[in-house]
Design goal:
Elements (H helix, E strand, L loop, with lengths): L2 H13 L2 H8 L3 H15 L4 E3 L4 E3 L1 H25 L6 E7 L1 H18 L3 E7 L2 H9 L5 E4 L8 E9 L1 E6 L9 E2 L9 E3 L3 H10 L7 E3 L2 H11 L2 E5 H9 L3 E3 L2 E2 L7 E8 L5 H13 L3
Parallel strand pairs: 3-4, 3-5, 8-13, 9-10
Antiparallel strand pairs: 1-2, 5-14, 6-14, 7-11, 7-12
This protein binds a DNA duplex (20 and 20 nucleotides) through helix 3.
DNA sequence: CTCCATTCGTGAAAGCATCA
DNA sequence: TGATGCTTTCACGAATGGAG
């Protein structure tokens, strides 16, 4: 029995799919099959009931699942304990997206480490779906993501219901009237697709018209806002910090199609160790959004 | 160092169910 | 009924480890 077999078992149990598990673990599907088969052979029991279309845990599988999760957790704690040999009291791995690191959480994390030198941190930058996978896999302790998740080993908390604002570079001359959606193309609109509810909303707002320039990173958007004197949408949480820093200004925007909300969630792995540090850190992270 | 057995992962193909 | 999706099986190659 090895860790890879246990991971395969836990993922198949959670996803109810060998194929999905293979995608998550970055192996071909038959590898998942053989790992499960090996595990079943070693345990002398079937872990899954397969019919031709669906799979579900057998009674033995259900009994074994919490033990498998505990073994994996112990393995991760062991790895973490080795990392802590260099004298830190705790080590936490935190993940969120580029935009939130750069424009919302950077100062808070910086301050946290200065006030808590006994806690070593590893910061991970990924999209929400990958962060959630890593959380489930026990590779991340704390994450801030845009999608909710329901998992036995993860505590989820809604931080804020964010929204979007139209912004421009701080040198932009704000018009004395509301910018309307039909006006966007006359204002050098630069598009950054924020995903989720924003995608559908913007499609409606723009009447499915392609944008002249699309970017995939906030820093790039800011550069173009400056050089092209253009407009672009930012989440409130990101815009707030940039307004404080005098980088951007809000441009009054009016639309008959309500600007969508976007929930931001804090995910925290249920841990037996590092609970105190994790609590301190998550409070700091939450405060950054106030 | 070489040989050989074992283990592991891969792609292709087969078999089956579901759905339009 | 064909397209699609899912799991299993099989042959193959690469990596690994033990024996001599």
């Amino acid at each position: 029995m090895d860790i890879e077999q246990l991971k395969a078992f836990i993922f198949v149990a959670n996803t109810k799919s060998f194929t999905r598990t293979a995608e998550i673990l970055n192996v071909v599907q038959s590898t998942v099959t053989s790992r499960i088969q090996m595990l079943e052979k070693q345990l002398g029991k079937d872990l899954f009931e397969r019919d031709k279309r669906n799979i579900k845990l057998t009674e033995s599988g259900s009994v074994f699942l919490p033990y498998a999760e505990r073994i994996l957790e112990l393995n991760n704690e062991g790895l973490k304990a080795i990392q802590l040999e260099n004298g830190f009291r705790d080590h936490l791995i935190i993940g969120t997206t580029h935009a939130l690191w750069d424009y919302v959480l950077f100062e808070s994390i910086d301050n946290f480490q200065q006030t808590h030198p006994e806690v070593s941190l590893t910061l991970v930058t990924e999209h929400s779906d990958i962060l959630i996978r890593k959380m489930i896999d026990g590779l991340i302790d704390v994450a801030i993501v845009f999608y909710p998740i329901n998992h036995a080993n993860i505590i989820m908390e809604l931080i804020i219901e964010d929204s979007f604002v139209l912004v421009a570079d701080s040198n932009f001359t704000i018009p004395d009237h509301f910018v309307l959606r039909k006006d966007l193309k006359n204002y050098n609109y630069i598009h950054l697709n924020w995903g989720g509810t924003f995608t559908g909303w913007f499609r409606e707002v723009s009447s499915n018209q392609d944008c002249h320039l699309q970017v995939d990173h906030v820093s790039l958007l800011l550069k173009f806002l400056k050089t092209r004197n253009g407009l672009g949408f930012l989440p409130n949480a990101v815009a707030k910090r940039l307004i404080q820093q005098d980088e951007v200004v809000i441009v009054p925007f009016h639309t008959d199609i309500a600007v969508p909300k976007r929930s931001i969630y804090l995910l925290k792995r249920k841990m037996t160790k590092s609970m105190e540090s994790s609590e301190l850190l998550t409070n700091v992270l939450k405060e950054a959004f106030l």
